[in-house]
Amino acid sequence: MFSIITFVPYLVIGILVFGTKLNVNFTATILAFTISAAILMGLAMVSSGLRIVTKSTDPITWAINIFQNLFSGIAFPVVYLDTIFFPGVSTVSWFLPQTWVYHLCRLSMLTNPNLFDPVILIQYLKGLVFAVVLFPVGYKIFQWGVLRAKREGTLGHY
């Protein structure tokens, strides 16, 4: 819910202040948000599971945050990375799960994609692969962290 509350002002500011023109395909946007939610929940469960065990920020989350800030397309689309940094660096970006979150959301809200177009469908399937892999892996890591903390007696309420 907090994400929705923070997303709406960004959207309004983008449209009113910066003159952003949205070309939304609502079905594609809902699909992009669903895939994005699964990707981000998987990453959150990985982080939480490791944090429960280590009781500190885990190195995996730290590394993901560094790579995300540099290469996932937060500030600008990934296609411009080769120009900003060096040729070929954008290839690294496509292996980061967050890149697919931003890419699918931009694709669905700015280009009015046709989900029956094979090129567009492949983009969504690539994002879906990250979601299908990360969500169960995240769940297993979270489950492992909770069970280990219970067994060691390091959870405050157990």
Notes on the structure:
The protein has 158 residues and is mainly α. The protein has one domain. The chain is 73% helix and 0% strand. The chain has 7 helices and no strands. Helix 2 packs parallel to helix 7. The protein is globular. It starts with a helix and ends in a 6-residue tail after the last helix.
Topology:
Blueprint: H1 2-16, H2 26-54, H3 59-71, H4 81-84, H5 89-93, H6 97-110, H7 118-152
Helix pairs in contact: 2-6, 2-7, 6-7
Unreliable residue runs? none
Mean pLDDT: 88
SSE sequence, one letter per element: HHHHHHH
Total helical elements: 7
Q: Evaluate the radius of gyration.
A: 18 Å
Rough outline: globular
Secondary-structure class: mainly alpha
| Main beta sheet strand tally, sense and closure | none
How many domains? Answer: 1
> What's the total number of strands?
0
What helical percentage do the residues reach? over 70%
Give the N-to-C terminal Cα separation: 29 Å
